[in-house]
């Protein structure tokens, strides 16, 4: 199982970024995929998640209306479109999956993680 996260970078407040999570080594279409983030000194938190069953989406309250998650099962890729970025969105962003746990599970329930991509939002 491999997850490759990319797309992070430095952006000004109010700007946009699109993160990608490319998956390989497993039946991607069968599993929920989540995006987590972790800022220095803070616990890893789920930002968004998309289910395998019907593609329903979940968002943390802090990003609702600004972030959009989507998946392309043909490309084994999940995207996180981040708009109206705020300084408090600064963190390392990780994509994750698990063969038993799904959307809404705490981060320690996920067994497979991408390497993380840094998102820095400046004023």
Give a quick set of tags describing it:
single chain, 123 residues, mainly beta, 7-stranded mixed beta sheet, 4-stranded antiparallel beta sheet, 11 strands, 0% helix, globular
Account of the 3D structure:
The chain is an all-beta fold. 31% of the residues are buried. Strand 4 and strand 5 form a beta hairpin. It is built from no helices and eleven strands. Strands 2, 4, 5, 6, 9, 10 and 11 form a seven-stranded mixed sheet that branches. It has a four-stranded antiparallel sheet with strand order 1-3-8-7, with no helix packed on it.
**Rg (C-alpha, Å):** 13 Å
Helix content: under 10%
The main β sheet shows up as:
7 strands, mixed
The sequence of SSEs as H and E is EEEEEEEEEEE
How would the blueprint of this fold be written?
Blueprint: E1 2-6, E2 9-12, E3 17-24, E4 33-38, E5 45-50, E6 57-59, E7 67-72, E8 77-82, E9 91-97, E10 112-113, E11 117-122
